[in-house]
């Protein structure tokens, strides 16, 4: 980490902390906890997977509407971190609250999960926008990938602890029920997330901003309206957002619903947790590798690679039958999920006007979140119609193909060397 500035490291450490939420709540323990609660209540596997998909669609729709509005307001001096902090506290509090919801109340679990997800994904809007404040355009690919790499590494620690507690409780080695072991995992997630966010609050500041104006809310809506009217002036940015809309939809859907999908295939909870742990370990070096290769082959070409890997994943998922097949699928995902997200963030960061980074990252969010409505709905509806979760995953191929075609029309961003001296401060 010696090659990174204090601001870059502090920013990346937030990924180290918040990624515990991503794997334990979004991907691993909570989906299993929820599926067990729904099954106990008599909900069929396909329906419970569908309800999870509908829930993801609802909270992403809410955040997609709020993102550009809040982002535009947050561009004023001193407001970016305040908005970040507000969503951060909602996310961590709701994550901890999951531990106190009765295990047989699957509907309340989904409600609490909605608030946790709103907080986590909302905070990420402003966290992503901070990339223009902590580093230079030339270093964005490396720093963004470094953040994702740290996230994968850091998330494995609370994940291991949580798995150990759950497995030991199942075997009766520790006097804790499996249900309470999962609840402990939720508390561990919240604590881990909070502790490693401290450097972000202490050392990362809003470097680029718009000076405060009278009636800032009214002025923000005017700026947002003007940006929408003049969006065609940002052709490269607009094309990238459209491409991003499609391919990140598939990425997010696979990440958020992979555990529920594995459960429908008959994999045991322990097998799923082990596979997810190994996926995190493998994903860390590949995320950093994507960043380094992007400096040699360009970020756009590495995004091509990531999208093609995901197309293979969707096709392979259709033929999934055994645990070995699921292992192969998970490792394929591990090679690209961090890299494609990291390079998308840095690619967009190079395109946006820095003083309006929150506003434009709000659009980045709205395209990503509205996309995340389509994917889960596509999987949910296809799974219910066919009674086969594999068909739902296979249907995501079309999203990746459309994203790939549109991305091919996006020009490479021009890197401005004039700001490179910031990194040396």
From TrEMBL:
<keyword id="KW-0813">Transport</keyword>
<keyword id="KW-0472">Membrane</keyword>
<feature type="transmembrane region" description="Helical">
    <location>
        <begin position="12"/>
        <end position="34"/>
    </location>
</feature>
<feature type="transmembrane region" description="Helical">
    <location>
        <begin position="107"/>
        <end position="127"/>
    </location>
</feature>
<feature type="transmembrane region" description="Helical">
    <location>
        <begin position="389"/>
        <end position="407"/>
    </location>
</feature>
<keyword id="KW-0812">Transmembrane</keyword>
<dbReference type="InterPro" id="IPR024671">
    <property type="entry name" value="Atg22-like"/>
</dbReference>
<feature type="transmembrane region" description="Helical">
    <location>
        <begin position="54"/>
        <end position="76"/>
    </location>
</feature>
<feature type="transmembrane region" description="Helical">
    <location>
        <begin position="181"/>
        <end position="201"/>
    </location>
</feature>
<protein>
    <submittedName>
        <fullName>UMF1 family MFS transporter</fullName>
    </submittedName>
</protein>
<dbReference type="GO" id="GO:0005886">
    <property type="term" value="C:plasma membrane"/>
</dbReference>
<dbReference type="GO" id="GO:0022857">
    <property type="term" value="F:transmembrane transporter activity"/>
</dbReference>
<dbReference type="InterPro" id="IPR020846">
    <property type="entry name" value="MFS_dom"/>
</dbReference>
<feature type="transmembrane region" description="Helical">
    <location>
        <begin position="148"/>
        <end position="169"/>
    </location>
</feature>
<feature type="domain" description="Major facilitator superfamily (MFS) profile">
    <location>
        <begin position="236"/>
        <end position="425"/>
    </location>
</feature>
<dbReference type="Pfam" id="PF11700">
    <property type="entry name" value="ATG22"/>
</dbReference>
<feature type="transmembrane region" description="Helical">
    <location>
        <begin position="83"/>
        <end position="101"/>
    </location>
</feature>
<dbReference type="InterPro" id="IPR050495">
    <property type="entry name" value="ATG22/LtaA_families"/>
</dbReference>
<feature type="transmembrane region" description="Helical">
    <location>
        <begin position="270"/>
        <end position="290"/>
    </location>
</feature>
<feature type="transmembrane region" description="Helical">
    <location>
        <begin position="302"/>
        <end position="320"/>
    </location>
</feature>
<feature type="transmembrane region" description="Helical">
    <location>
        <begin position="360"/>
        <end position="383"/>
    </location>
</feature>
<feature type="transmembrane region" description="Helical">
    <location>
        <begin position="236"/>
        <end position="258"/>
    </location>
</feature>
<keyword id="KW-1133">Transmembrane helix</keyword>
<dbReference type="InterPro" id="IPR036259">
    <property type="entry name" value="MFS_trans_sf"/>
</dbReference>
């Amino acid at each position: 980490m010696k090659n990174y500035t204090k601001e870059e490291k502090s920013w990346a450490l937030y990924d180290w902390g918040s990624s515990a939420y991503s794997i334990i709540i979004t991907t691993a323990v909570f989906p299993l906890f929820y599926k067990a609660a729904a099954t106990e209540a008599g909900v069929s596997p396909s329906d419970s997977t569908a309800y999870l998909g509908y829930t993801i669609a609802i909270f992403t729709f809410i955040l997609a509407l709020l993102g550009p509005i809040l982002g535009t307001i947050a561009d004023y001096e001193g407001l970016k971190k305040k908005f970040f902090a507000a969503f951060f506290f909602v996310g961590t509090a709701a994550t901890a609250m999951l531990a106190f919801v009765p295990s047989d109340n699957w509907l309340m679990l989904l409600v609490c999960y909605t608030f946790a997800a709103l907080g986590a994904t909302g905070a990420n809007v402003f966290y992503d926008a901070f990339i223009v404040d902590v580093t230079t355009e030339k270093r964005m690919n490396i720093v963004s990938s470094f953040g994702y790499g740290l996230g994968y590494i850091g998330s494995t620690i609370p994940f291991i602890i949580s798995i150990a507690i759950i497995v030991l409780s199942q075997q009766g080695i520790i006097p804790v029920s499996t249900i309470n072991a999962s609840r402990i995992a939720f508390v561990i997630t919240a604590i881990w997330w909070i502790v490693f966010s401290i450097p972000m609050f202490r050392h990362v500041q809003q470097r680029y901003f718009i000076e405060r104006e009278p009636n800032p809310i009214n002025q923000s809506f005017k700026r947002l309206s003007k940006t929408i009217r003049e969006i065609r002036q940002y052709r490269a940015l607009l094309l990238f957002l459209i491409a991003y809309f499609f391919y990140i939809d598939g990425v997010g859907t696979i990440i958020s619903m992979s555990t529920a999908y594995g459960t429908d295939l008959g994999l045991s909870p322990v097998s799923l947790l082990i596979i997810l742990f190994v996926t995190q370990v493998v994903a860390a070096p590949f995320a950093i590798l994507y960043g380094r290769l992007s400096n040699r082959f360009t970020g756009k070409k590495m995004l091509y690679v990531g999208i093609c890997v995901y197309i293979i994943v969707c096709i392979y998922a259709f033929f999934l039958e055994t645990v070995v097949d699921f292992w192969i699928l998970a490792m394929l995902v591990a090679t690209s999920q961090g890299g494609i997200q990291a390079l998308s963030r840095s690619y967009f960061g190079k395109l946006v006007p820095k003083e309006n980074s929150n506003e434009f990252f709000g659009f980045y969010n709205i395209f990503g979140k509205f996309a995340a409505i389509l994917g889960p709905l596509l999987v949910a509806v296809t799974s219910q119609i066919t009674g086969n979760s594999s068909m739902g995953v296979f249907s995501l191929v079309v999203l990746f193909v459309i994203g790939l075609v549109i991305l091919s029309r996006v020009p490479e961003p021009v890197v401005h060397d004039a700001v490179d001296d910031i990194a040396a401060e």
